[in-house]
Design brief:
2 copies of one chain form a homodimer.
Chain A: E1 5-6, E2 12-14, H1 17-40, H2 59-76, H3 80-96, H4 106-109, H5 123-141, H6 145-164, H7 177-187, H8 191-202, H9 236-253, H10 256-272, H11 304-320, H12 324-337, E3 356-357, H13 388-397, E4 404-406, E5 410-413, E6 419-423, E7 426-432, E8 439-445, E9 451-455, E10 463-465, E11 470-472, E12 475-479, E13 484-491, E14 495-500, E15 511-515, E16 518-523, E17 535-536, E18 543-547, E19 552-561, E20 571-573, E21 581-589, E22 601-602, E23 604-607
Helix pairs in contact in A: 1-2, 1-13, 2-3, 2-5, 2-13, 5-6, 5-7, 6-8, 7-8, 7-9, 8-9, 9-10, 9-11, 10-11, 11-12
Chain lengths: 608, 608
């Protein structure tokens, strides 16, 4: 196991290009859109411990993620209004903390007698998110007020779970607190934090379910001791939060057994259970992983939070096991499975991110009420369970977290974000229009004697670099031989056709279209033909032209299609020599689907 | 509208070949298997008006269809045991008839106060099947005892529905009685029967539902006056029984408006809503038709009864509108969608007939309880709603019904069944191994001066006939110029690849394999490769070799398949020049799937 150090986003300036635009939208539109909807739905009023209609035991976590996001934003762009929100919220949390340290709105206002009795009531999950918010506020503003509040709560948790052991369960139903405790320990080191995290990890398999429960122990990742878990199972968000905490533990304790488990979990997920967009979790039932290679497109669950959680896990693993496959997955999530979660105007959200929409499947039951269970076709401003919107705001605000890591000899550049990073005494300046362009200008000052590791994305078949390099597990390692090194790295950007493992039934005989890290889709809106009927002409020369509306190129290529007016019968003999008409197909980045109304949509196409 | 006359199966002898084998199995195994399961489940005990556990308001119809089947069998093959069953059942029905004429076990034993109050309680549907049984018994044995019993019941129905109008609904929730009344009128002509049938047809749209009901009026084919219904809607069995009654009415009343509706309904169904197997009804929700071209394979409902009902409707239409498309659909149903409903040993049944089974979709939810709603993968001996098994027994026993029709000048041969038919003074002898062979020997004695119409199946691209003929709407019309005419008709039998209308999303880019009227499928049992990965080599020369086990040829052809051991990643660049291995694929008749245990199964394949 290696131990690369994380370079936090606070040491990174996102200056221009793709992510600067996204952060601006996040800062100016999304953070407030989420806040307003949380206000409308009572989530902020609940901070006053009022019995707001609909008050739910996970509301604390929604607000906590919003606070964390706001802290990330003010850390970079001071904002009085946001700061006032943060201060007010922290004051209220402090004011309403139970004398014994406990804090949960629902379990104070509604069910005070049932604290820590129901494993599914997310109290520790909420605490985890509050801890992440507290750390973010501390890093953004230097205020440790919320950390102090939560430290008292953590003491109470330790007393109840580890000392007295009088709770109704031993480990959280929804993981999160483990990674949060390691994060807290990083800014306020205290062995009690890591011991509590380790307690929750070590005892996870001891919470088991009766056989007649609606789910089994896999749903909770409690089916085996965590170090013996080698396949990604159960609720996909919980799973990836757990795996993130496991990776943190592996690093903190130099726990090789845990590290091996993490590597196996990652490979199982990335090689057998991930959509081409990075989507995780093939079914709404349990919001869960199913079996290997089971990746249906139209019923894909692929929760936005699961993609964010998977990026968090992968981002930890890249520092323990510096192979480009981890940052490759992060990149896939960044540009596809996560980003599709938010609209281009920054104000509405997908919880589920399907890879195929057939509008005719909605309302096909013309004689009976009810519909098949399918993902919604347009983003919503808020959900009853609205975990994804504030997860998106924090992810985008802290995108710099994913860019660089390092140790004494090496600097790893994992993501190509236009910006500057101060890393271990060196200043890296990166200019790029990535992913619209594959050209990356790098200036590294003050890194002489170190080696710069540049990730060569897995999707990239050819690249040029104007310096000698050696490939090391997917990274081009360049010796920094002078005080200032100018590098030009160019990834060949072209429209690519991607196939899936033939064990994936739902993509058999099909290709997806990609451009750099971006996966593309066709929408009915742009294409007159029936999308399922299109057979892409993989010999054609596709056009990729930057489109301002999408913030990335759109693609035009040729496809073969039937003329439905030629059809005379429902079933006809195959005509092998049939001349099909060719049509131009417009493809847009997957993340931008469903921004212009409900539409048919498709990622995977037949081809010739 | 034309008015060809039906030649009942009683005038047809099935002598050998495919259907003689099927009738033998039906007579020796199936009829008794169904009886035994009906006995086990209390359906026969209920004839004594005992409160049997599970007693259901449609049990009368299950037993009635069994009695009808038994009558068809004894009409051809006297059988004391079956005859005793018939006599006993008729005696019991007579003994338990209400003094006012009413007869329904459930609504006498369990809910006597709720007679004719609930449109969904199938009393008139049960009466319809009892009438069909009574007619069959009369035709088989000459006994009109049950007809006399039911005539009293019909009088009571007329009094309640047409005279007093004091019932809770005006027309049956589940149609059937309409066609049954026309059938009764054919053997015991009485205007009151046809008037009652017409009453139910004419008033059908007047029974409407509240807006918040679980289904709407389309489910019951009550959304429009029947003569204005031009699209097949709602519960697929009910629909086709209704359409059969409508066709009967059109013929009886020379009702052109009804005839036009029937033609439109048939075309909508056959050209937009029928599976390649003849399966009808794309969804289990409402067991209903959905929208045009919506034909998912793995979730297909395609109820056996719906295929039987569609064959009944088509069989009526062929006599009003002598176009081969009607008998073509009957043929598709006979050899595929209906026949798949019964196992090769004759003892177990499918209610639903999917066109694709992926066993891995069963139990994919490894962390939660519950499964996706999918058809069962193996036949069962009896169902709670066991309408299909006795519908199969009556269909097979009366297969001769579908063979011939005629008028004074013409004899139509619709189905190629090895046998003899006496039709309007002529004796037709037909020798054939159809559908294993395309060769049909015909001898027509006593038909001089008439014209023999031989259906040229829609699937047949080439045929030879050793006599002059003129094509008329899909029939080869041969003038019978001498007292005895010997004909040799030969349909080119070869393995065919069939495509679907490109508007059918679920079959885009795929072919089905057929041989004569038989649709084929691959089972995982016979094929080592992943079925979804197979791309059939449509240039190969397939083998079709008769297999005794299936009673029809099995097919071997070549396909391209991936070698899963070659795969290195979940997503890879398309290799256009990739060399795929070729594998031999074994295909078996669709009707024979799932006879050797649960298995993956597939009808539609990619191809090259």
């Amino acid at each position: 196991m290696e131990h690369l150090k994380k370079l936090p986003f606070t040491a990174v300036e996102v200056c221009g290009g793709f992510w600067a635009n996204r952060q601006k939208l996040n800062r100016e539109a999304t953070i407030w859109a989420v806040r307003d909807r949380f206000e409308d739905t009572g989530r902020f009023a609940a901070l006053d411990f009022e019995n707001v209609p609909g008050l739910h035991f996970f509301w604390d976590s929604d607000v906590a993620k919003w606070l964390e996001s706001a802290a990330y934003i003010v850390a970079k762009t001071p904002d009085e209004a946001l700061q006032a929100e943060l201060d007010s919220a922290v004051d209220k949390i402090e004011a309403h903390q139970d004398p014994n340290g406990y804090y949960n709105i629902y379990h104070t206002v509604i069910e005070p007698d049932n604290r820590f009795k129901n494993r599914d009531h997310h109290e520790l999950y909420c605490l985890g998110h509050l801890i992440e918010a507290a750390v973010a506020i501390f890093e953004a503003t230097g205020s440790d007020k919320l950390i102090i509040v939560l430290d008292r709560y953590i003491d109470y948790v330790i007393d109840r779970f580890c000392v007295r052991g009088d709770t109704g369960f031993r480990t959280p139903g929804h993981e999160e607190i483990e990674l949060a405790l390691y994060k807290l320990n990083a800014v306020k080191p205290d062995e009690k934090y890591t011991k509590l995290a380790k307690f929750f990890l070590d005892h996870r398999h001891e919470d088991t379910l009766p056989a007649d429960h609606w789910c089994n122990d896999k749903y909770y990742q409690s089916h085996l001791p965590v170090r013996r878990q080698h396949t990604a199972e159960g609720h996909s968000v919980r799973a990836n939060y757990l795996y993130s905490g496991m990776a943190d533990e592996a690093a903190a304790e130099n726990d090789e057994e845990m590290f091996e488990a993490c590597k196996a979990l990652f490979d199982d997920m990335a090689l057998k259970k991930a959509y081409v967009t990075g989507g995780m979790g093939s079914s709404h039932m349990g919001e869960a992983f199913t079996v290997a290679y089971d990746l249906p497109n139209d019923t894909a669950y692929a929760e936005t939070c699961a993609s964010i959680a998977a990026a968090m896990f992968a981002n930890r693993m890249k520092d323990l096991d510096p192979d480009s496959k981890y940052a490759d997955l992060v990149e896939t999530e960044m540009y596809n499975g996560i980003l599709s979660g938010v609209s281009l105007d920054g104000k509405s959200f997908f919880y589920e991110n399907p890879l195929e929409i057939n509008l005719s499947d909605h309302g096909r039951h013309v004689s009976v009420r009810g519909d098949d269970r399918l993902p919604i076709t347009e983003r919503k401003e808020v959900f009853d369970c609205s975990c994804c919107p504030p997860n998106l705001t924090r992810f985008i605000a802290s995108i710099g977290d994913y860019m660089v890591s390092y140790d004494d000899e090496r600097i790893f550049l994992h993501q190509y974000i236009d910006g500057e990073a101060v890393v271990n005494g060196a200043l890296i300046t990166l200019e790029t229009a990535y992913p619209s362009s594959g050209l990356v200008h790098l200036n590294v000052a003050g890194g002489k004697g170190k080696t710069l590791y540049l990730r060569i994305p897995g999707w990239c078949e050819r690249f040029t670099l104007n310096a000698p390099y050696e490939m090391k597990r997917g990274y081009a390692a360049v010796a920094l031989t002078s005080d200032v090194v100018e590098l030009e790295l160019s990834f060949e950007m072209k429209v690519r056709f991607v196939t899936a493992d033939p064990r994936v039934r739902h993509t058999a005989g099909k290709v997806a279209v990609a451009y750099g890290p971006l996966v593309y889709c066709a929408e009915g809106k742009d294409n007159a033909a029936m999308l399922w009927d299109l057979a892409l002409d993989t010999k054609c020369e596709p056009d990729a032209v930057y489109a301002d509306y999408f913030g990335a190129p759109e693609i035009t290529l040729k496809a073969f299609a039937h003329d439905e007016n030629d059809v005379r019968a429902l079933y006809l003999p195959l005509k092998r020599d049939e001349k099909q008409k060719t049509v131009a197909v417009r493809l847009i980045p997957y993340y931008a689907f469903a921004n212009r109304g409900a539409s048919d949509m498709r990622v995977w196409f037949r081809y010739r």
